Amino acid sequence: MIAQLQGKISFLQKNSFVIQCSGVGYTVRALQRLLSGVALGDTLTIWTHLAVREDALDLYGFSEREEIDFFQMLITVPGIGPKSAMAIIDLAPVKNIIGAVVAEDAEYLTTVSGIGKKSATKMILELKDKLGDLYEEEEGENLGEDASALEALKALGYGTGESRNALHRVKELWREGDRMGKNGINEKVKAALKLLGRS
What we know:
The protein contains nine helices and five strands. The chain has helices at 32-35, 65-74, 82-91, 94-102, 106-112, 117-132, 143-155, 160-176, 185-195, and strands at 4-12, 16-21, 24-30, 43-52, 57-62.
């Protein structure tokens, strides 16, 4: 199993990149938030999962340990393969998705993570007990606020995907500035609108 790679990025695509390690180039499928933060020539260390199929060996890469841990749990859920798991993780912060599973909040999973009700129910049934001991709710984290902020942006005419990405970026910026837990729905929407180019 290839667990981790470190090297330089030699090629970038929409959903993947090639990382050169000791003269060997590995194609790695990655989350959009990872791809958007790297450039050709960057040196990168990533956690990897090798998905083995009859006709292919696919590498999936993650910058954070919690992302790959959750990814590997997700692909144990019937009906959720590696590509679907990547899509789920890319649409909302991992801790939010885990929190929704533990809280059995299927509405949040379908609204913010972009999966169907059937898949959301399967995730809850399959993962709740496994995730309960791992999940620690962040101070000030409110899943209901995220869903409400997303709906507000959609009501203003923004697409679901771009709205999710903007809200995720807002939370990253607030976390970096130690502002988590000090902002409500209105502040999240205002900050997201600024990122979306509309004040």
